[in-house]
Design goal:
Layout lengths: L6 E2 L5 E2 L1 H11 L5 H13 L11 E3 L3 E3 L2 E11 L11 E11 L9 E5 L15 H7 L3 E5 L21 H8 L4 H15 L6 E6 L1 H12 L4 E7 L8 E2 L1 H22 L3 H13 L6 E2 L5 E2 L1 H5 L2 H4 L5 H9 L17 H9 L8 H5 L5 E2 L6 H8 L1 H4 L1 H6 L15 H4 L7 H9 L9 H5 L5 E6 L7 H8 L6 E5 L6 H18 L6
Parallel strand pairs: 7-8, 7-9, 9-10, 10-15, 15-16
Antiparallel strand pairs: 1-2, 3-5, 4-5, 5-6, 6-8, 11-14, 12-13
Helix pairs in contact: 1-2, 3-21, 4-18, 5-6, 7-14
Organism: Clitoria ternatea (Butterfly pea)
InterPro entries: AB_hydrolase_1 (IPR000073), AB_hydrolase_fold (IPR029058), Peptidase_S33 (IPR002410), Serine_prot/Carboxylest_S33 (IPR051601)
Keywords: Hydrolase
Length: about 500
């Protein structure tokens, strides 16, 4: 129920509705004058007797999975929050409330989970396990599908085809970054949390980036913050270049480690690269209609080099590269199983937003100009797959990088090539962080920083952490970027312990 009769400050004291709304507009530049007035109107008309099924908030009945109880919430929010609560167009944001069985009516503190990405939805719980189980021991968990993903007005290959021009699509897509994700979260918090009180947030990867945006512009909504593998660079302009300079250095190290683990794969990859380069068009057709080229093959490092069991999964993928020779004299061919598995390795067909917005998450008032592609050109002597294969050198993989040629070679991305180029040149991205606010942060923050993180560089993370007052860091090489997935209960328990006094400061 959206009980919004009184506001609670972070210290727990009560203050008036007008002061509460005013505090939002002062402390949070995302809240415009119109947004503040809209919030006041909402508060004055939605008391304890208000229905969960109001047009802007619809709630389902409780349902069950093993050891968990869940219910769904759908919120109708402005596409552009800066135009006020009543502005159009509107989109829908979906959030799933999760509690341990028997705790449906208990007064539990709320914890919002912010998924990694960008452009990925929360996983649907199928049982009580891992970090979800640990969180539900003491919290009411909220799994919010970030706008454009999952059940939150999903931007899919098919839904985005409704736009008749690349300009119209990019004008829509510009509203799907961390700033508006935080606006959505605040919209939900004041309607979902009793008395519009603050909640705890847990941000994984890009979700951690969103958490730092939250700390910058809406700290009054936060009780405490947990971050796992997701402290972003916060410098002005576009920090993508620094991210990819560090990223290429790290992916070289990870490629070398991979081949030490599986030295037999050096020749397999070399043979595969040579085969692809000798085909008409420089590659072979993929089942979807795209093309597999040597540079496309290198992108397997995106998933294979940065997560728990990634090395093993990549090795087992290469075990099934070639079709067997069933008929003497039959030409050598890459197996359908390998080609199909290669495409399934990524999620561009189901989550194209990841490719379209990936570089823009680093931009404030400046364009990315295809940063990953530019930085790669500076180190191409090391990443030239064809040259390496012909010279008998290990073929290096690439990491979390989006290149312009992907919109030619990946079938699902082809319709969005023009939009991708417009986004890469866009300069007027609004701010995502406020360094001054972070310097004076009062919200308790604990972050897991993974020493060998392929996706979020430790040096850049440490630079940002030095700007967030009071942050506590757990720096570890026990986990890779997927620590929350691999042993989430331990990770969450450790971070909570750092904030609740169980882990000493020194």
């Amino acid at each position: 129920m959206p009980f919004i009769c009184l506001g609670l400050s972070t210290s727990g004291s009560f203050f008036s509705l007008s002061n509460f709304a005013k505090s939002l507009s002062i402390a949070n530049p995302f809240f415009s004058h119109a947004r503040r007035n809209s919030l006041l109107s909402t508060m004055n008309t939605e008391g304890p007797a208000a229905s969960d099924s109001s047009p802007e908030h619809v709630t389902s009945d409780w349902y069950s999975v093993p050891e968990l109880r869940l219910r769904d919430h759908r919120f109708t929010v402005p596409l552009d929050h800066s135009h006020g609560h009543h502005s159009v167009p509107k989109i829908s944001v979906f959030a799933r409330e999760v509690v341990a069985v028997g705790k449906e009516e208990q007064k539990l503190p709320y914890l919002l989970f912010l998924q990694g990405g960008p452009g990925f939805e929360c996983r649907q719980p199928t049982e009580s396990s891992g970090w979800v189980k640990r969180v539900c021991e003491e919290f009411r968990l909220v799994l919010m599908d970030q706008r454009g993903t999952g059940l939150s007005t999903p931007l899919t290959v098919s839904s985005m085809s409704q736009f008749k021009s690349a300009d119209a699509l990019t004008d829509f897509l510009k509203h799907f970054r961390a700033d508006n994700i935080v606006n959505d979260a605040e919209f939900i918090r004041v309607r979902l949390v009793p008395d519009a009180g603050p909640w705890t947030i847990l941000g994984q990867s890009f979700g951690g980036f969103c958490a730092v945006t939250y700390l910058s512009f809406a700290p009054q909504g936060l009780k405490q913050v947990l971050i796992t593998g997701g402290i972003p660079p916060i410098g002005g302009g576009c920090t993508a270049d620094s991210v990819y300079i560090a990223g290429f250095e790290q992916v070289i190290r990870q490629s070398e480690k991979y081949y030490k683990r599986f030295p037999q794969d050096i020749k397999i990859v070399q043979e595969l690269v040579n085969y692809l380069s000798e085909q008409d068009g420089g590659g072979v057709a993929l089942p979807s209609g795209g093309i597999l080229t040597p540079r496309g093959l290198q992108t397997l490092g995106l998933s294979g080099l940065g997560s728990g069991a990634g090395f093993e999964s990549l090795h087992y993928l290469f075990e099934k590269v070639w079709d067997p020779t069933l008929v003497p004299g039959a030409p050598k061919r890459i197996s359908y199983n390998f080609l199909s598995s290669f495409e399934k390795w990524f999620a561009f067909d189901t989550n194209p937003l990841y490719a379209l917005l990936h570089e823009s998450i680093y931009c404030q008032g400046s364009s990315s100009k295809w940063s990953a592609g530019r930085i790669r050109s500076e180190v191409e002597d090391k990443f030239d797959a064809i040259k390496a294969a012909r010279e008998g050198l290990p073929v290096l993989f690439t990491g979390e990088m989006i290149f312009p040629w992907m919109f030619d070679e990946i079938h699902a991305l082809k319709p969005f090539k023009d939009a991708a180029h417009i986004l890469a040149e866009k300069k007027d991205w609004p701010p995502l962080y406020d360094v001054q606010v972070l310097n004076n942060n009062k919200v308790p923050v604990a972050a897991a920083v993974y020493y060998e993180d392929l996706y979020v560089n430790i040096k850049l993370s440490m630079e940002t952490a030095s700007q967030i007052a009071g942050i506590r860091l757990w720096i570890t090489n026990e986990f890779m970027h997927s620590g929350l997935r691999d042993d989430g209960s331990k990770v969450v328990d450790h971070l909570l312990g750092m904030l609740n006094g169980k882990k000493p400061l020194f």
